[in-house]
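# nightly structure sweep
# worker-07 picked up a monomer target from the shared queue
# config: single-sequence mode, recycle default, output format = structure tokens
# input follows
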Amino acid sequence: MLNKKFFIENLKTLLYALIIAIFIRSLFIQPFYIPSSSMEPNLLVGDRLFVTKYSYGYSRHSFPFSPPIFSGRIFFTNPKRGDVVVFKTPADNRTDYIKRLIGLPGDKIQFIDTNLYINNSEVLKSRISNNDKIFCGKNSIDVFTFEEILPNGKKHNSVYLKDFTFSNSDLFVVPKDHYFFLGDNRDCSKDSRFLTSVGYVHKDNLVGKAQFIFFSSDKSIGSIFSFWKWNKTLRFDRFFKKIK
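# output follows
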């Protein structure tokens, strides 16, 4: 009898904990893991970060498994150009992507001779490094690092291949209620430039705003369970780093 009561009480505790966790994850904050190099040098593979779900209001994609409990977006707040945003890809409305918001509804976006233009004005950028190496998948690539200044004054670093960088694009005109995203690793990012796989992202597909990194490890060196390698695998300098 005692064992049955003990089992029921523990089951109830776990159930309550699960409900609270889902509530917090759905309405307030959710952890995400960075699996690709498309946002280098600002986000690295192995970074774990917190995303605030309330930043842009809520849609069905705010909840686990995107249940069709309501349509549209409630308590909507417009995202700002330069925000680093997690969203569901329009291709399947299931896969999470993280990119930088570049184009707002009605904006005209185009690359001309490797330079980014927003509404026919070139985005100012200044080269801050000539000899950086970053990853594209498992390959190390040589890049130029720039500081870019978006029209609203938001600054961020972006990288371009030294050779054969992305030079010219079609003119993209962002539709109503949609956004245009780019990866900071410009030559190693599947983003809104690829209309068949990502393209323009509807406001209902926004999941939340990336705020800060709470943990980071380099899996290429070793597992985090190998505590004797923590001085090499754990990137302590990235712990609690704010995402710009």
